[in-house]
Design a protein that fits this description.
The chain has one domain: OB fold (Dihydrolipoamide Acetyltransferase, E2P). It is built from three helices and ten strands. The strands form two sheets. It has a seven-stranded antiparallel sheet. A three-stranded antiparallel sheet has the order 4-6-7. β6 and β7 form a beta hairpin.
Length: 143
Amino acid sequence: MEPSYFKSPLYRYYTPFTYKYQDDPPLLIRMHTNKLFLVFLSENHPIKNENVLEVKFIHNTDGLSGKRKRNAPLLQPATRLAVVRTENFTYVIRAGVEGKLIELNELLLTNPNLLKEPEGYLAIMMPPLQKISSIVKRLTEDK
């Protein structure tokens, strides 16, 4: 086992959870120690085995301002976040977490196959602080 000081910050500072919505493939949600959530595809998501042609975000983060990200879209876990088109299928990716959408990974627009990489996140979400414990209860801890 490698020492913890060699591990990527993604594994040192983020707690992994799984989000599953109805028949959709699961998402990997990582919670940082500062209570921000990053949305990824899970390791067994079908997109990981396909060539990604396009990622289209449904929401935008233009006009955000200030420490609390005023004007950020408020999303629910089942809210559609993006549409990913591969050679064979089109997938809808959901937010996975309730909160403000504070950042979209714009690199996916020019290089959509980054989505298949371990660091290829879709979005950063900021949940309401008073709801973090209930959000964590709803997510399945991925240990």
